[in-house]
Request: fold
Amino acid sequence: MLAFNFFGATEGGLFDINATLPLMAIQVVALTYILNSLFFKPVGNVVEKREKFVSNNIIEAKNKLSEVKKLEADLLTQLQSARTEAQRIVSEAENESDKLYKEALDLANNEANASKEKARLEIESQTNAARDQLSKQADDLSELIVNRLILEK
Amino acid sequence: MFFNSLLTNFAALEVGQHLYWQIGNIRLHGQVFLTSWILLGALLVFISLGTKKMENDPKGLQNLLEFLWDYIRDLARTQIGEKVYRDWMPFIGTLFLFVFVSNWGGALIPWRLIKLPSGELGAPTADINTTIALALLVSLSYFYAGLSNKGWRYFEYYVHPTPIMLPFKILEDFTKPLSLSFRLFGNILADELVVGVLVFLVPLILPIPVMFLGLFTSAIQALIFATLAAYYIGEAVEEHH
Reply:
């Protein structure tokens, strides 16, 4: 009796296939359309809109970040060039002042040398003059002595 | 003796009894439609409540529904592929929701308390008609998907790596709906029977872990059914090179 009920008697049974099948199929197809318009479409719209929003924002942020990085690199190179420029100017000024110092030193040295030379020449000429005079006086004196000696004799 | 009492208990479970509705010449299993209408009604109410006020910052029910949508999309996308999953997502999702709601509704709601003149209320998926209907819809879908996407080239699939595959691939077209329908039917019916028998034999405590196991199987079966349906459709639309 039980086995009869279990495996499909004419009336009832587990494997009793009838018009329930096509009607259930129609019901599921209808449910698909209903759920599509009630659930899948609206929720999908909201979720996809949000996903688009988020991905757009991420792209925008990435662009901004890369722009910032580019600007940073720009600034860095600018800073670098400014630094080298400053260094160049400083070294130029140092060279300049060095040159000026050397020139002034040379000039002063030359001047000192010249005046030293002049003084030496003057000293020499005066020495010579003095010597000349001295020798002349000696000559005079000797002549006088000679003359006096000659006269006394 | 024991066997006899077991048999009477089985008989008390009213296995294979149906509440017949006669409309003209056709006969329907009324209990299947009654439970499915109640469960689908609840599902639709739940969904319309959740989608009533959609916001960009999801709250409450909308959050849950979005999670569900995302879950179904992932399922469809991984099985069917990026190109056509959008067309089939509602169908796969409906299969998943229908099977899931039917299984869980059948297991969670104490239908036994409602007395019918004949048969008893239970999971709509524990009726072979429902599962065969679902499985045939899946078969139609993958044929339609293959033919609409690839035209007559769809039949290249039957001789795909070699023509030797032809008989096996044709056989597959029959075994697919068969295995789909009987897997779901068998699992859900077996779960109902096990719980029913245990409740009769030991009404306290012991059936509870089995009931939890039943809920687990029910969810897994819904996932398996939807995944396989999506996989068959994906197989049909896949391009061979």
